[in-house]
Amino acid sequence: MRVDVHSDISCGCWCYMARKELRYAFLRRRVGPILAICMTLTLLAGCGNGQTSKGGMFFGPPQSIGNGTAKTYVTLDNSGKPTEVGIRVSAASLDGLPDEDTVPPRMLILDLPQRASATVFDHAMLNWNPHGHAPTALFGKPHFDMHFYMVDSAAVAKIDPSSPDFAARAAHLPDAKYVPVGYVPPPGSPAENTVPAMGLHWTDSANGIVPGKYDFTQILLNGTWDGRYTFIEPMMTREWMLTKQTIREDLKQPHAYQWNGYFPTTYSVRYDDQAKEYSISLGGMIMHHAS
To answer: Measuring CA to CA, which residue among 85, 74, 98 is closest to residue 146?
Structure first.
């Protein structure tokens, strides 16, 4: 009987290589998931060793406005300290807005995320002014108001001209050291200038806000009520927002603080093209204590 040694050897080598490849394929199918599990366990072990990151962006509940939504947010660093609070407004919100004012005006009360509790802010408020508001010579363009309040919504709601002590409380201005440097109240009676359910609005004297000369696109105001510095308010026209410009400004600071908490030092507006959202933010948070 003739034996073809060469053929047997070739067949043996081929069979050996085939079995080897099958074993590698089997290992690849098994090792991949095992490595993923090991990496996950390693990360979890790191978390258990005090390496957990407390940072991230956290959102408040959204509310409808126009054809879109608005929601608050807070950004924390890895240690859990707040670095920024803000409002994110979807691009669709700029469409489908009412053409006429409602009476009383519709104001969205936006709760901040619980993780924003270390900041000085209690909540935010957003409202749309289709015909602007007084003084119309300055702010008569269609625009959004965005209040970041340091007092709760119940306290704001009590700013009511029908209250017997309204005039006295409106005229009770904070000590100058508690108001950001350079900000001044409007001329005239504080009671006449105090907006119900908002407060008395102060403007930066450096902005040169003169009727007939000032062209309103976007601005930052501050507000008070009954001896307290109570809010920071970005205002911006719909027309300006549609340009999707980015701005970042340093906030003027008071000489002293009435509240304990993290205060912002910057103001920014930017458009997130991926999320299709505008971000109106107060950042650069620094801790201050009441004094």
So the answer is: 85
Residue at token pair 């001044």: 184
Which two tokens mark 291? 């004094």
Among residues 235, 276, 238, 220, which one has the least CA distance to residue 88?
276
pTM of the model: 0.82
- Tens digit of each residue's pLDDT (9 = 90 or more) over 51-107: 578 999 999 999 999 999 999 999 999 999 999 999 999 999 999 999 998 766 789
CB neighbour list of residue 252: distance below 8 Å, 6 or more residues apart: 180, 181, 182, 183, 204
161-183 as b/e: b if 16+ CB within 10 A: eeeeebeebbeebbeeebbbeeb
Report d(CA 113, CA 123) in Å as an integer.
9
Peptide bond into 104 cis (omega under 30): yes
